[in-house]
């Protein structure tokens, strides 16, 4: 039987799950893996500023932001740990370490370009999770193979006042966006990696997340939840913390907006919030990944049944629109 204990606690199938808050959306368009109020299809936009001209505005007319100084060095085994930390391996090209951000400096060590592109697409810097959310939905295409294999050490100096101390804790939440940092990363890709993308808005099949029972949501506490060791580990998790391992999803005092990208990754389709729920809740969802034929998983429900039985939410088929990026140009930079 698979081991699903997320904590250092060996007690059968004890697991712990998180919380999610919700924002009501009727029709929607995907921006990254979040959805906002429906609007007309966007025109195709070339994101790179032409050479020998003033930089064009980006992100719906906001002024262009860029690092004042950048350092990009090809990564080799001989390179040290740097400000970003050590090695971490994600899936589907989402490999690297959590970027280090303070009000004046950005540092990403042992990072591939795919990770940077997904950050620029989604505006979400929730480490590898945001990259995997975008990758699972195939929202970006046309990238050369090296974007997922070649590694770089990247540092940048922010413009004065671009990133405030109060902004930093929100950078790593699934529910929050970092639009200024998003624009700065996009400028880095345009200026140093010569990125050119074409944006396309397409109608796609997806799911609407609904709440059939308006009386409230369920909390499916795992076995052994009240064990002091388990409970202490759970209590130490910060509000809004979400975790995913295969079909096991958990959240503590999170928003529905935290749960939406997790469900999109599990189903492989965009998910739109139509619950009408605006509060916080804790959830524990134990399911088997879709299309998994391993006999060890046969006794677990799929994500659709688990979500309804264990949380009181339901996924229903729907049509929505999503923004796709088609990469037309991308080059390796000269290291400095």
The tally of helices reads 6
Q: Helix/strand-derived class?
A: alpha+beta
Assembly state: single chain
Total number of distinct structural domains: 2
Ends distance:
50 Å
**Largest sheet: number of strands, sense, barrel closure:** 6 strands, mixed
Q: Per the principal axes of the C-alpha atoms, what is the gross shape?
A: globular
* Average pLDDT: 77
Strand element count: 13
Strand content: 15-25%
Helix content: 10-25%
Features of the shown structure:
336 residues, four-stranded antiparallel sheet, 6 helices
Overview of the structural elements:
The protein folds into two domains: 178 residues, no CATH class; 145 residues, no CATH class. 18% of the residues lie in helices and 24% in strands. The chain is built from six helices and 13 strands. The strands form three sheets. Strands 1, 2, 6, 8, 11 and 13 form a six-stranded mixed sheet that branches. Strands 3-7-5-4 form a four-stranded antiparallel sheet, covered by helices on one side. Strands 9-10-12 form a three-stranded antiparallel sheet. Helix 1 crosses helix 3 and helix 2 packs across helix 5. The longest helix is centred in the middle third of the chain and has 14 residues. The radius of gyration is 20 Å and the shape is globular.
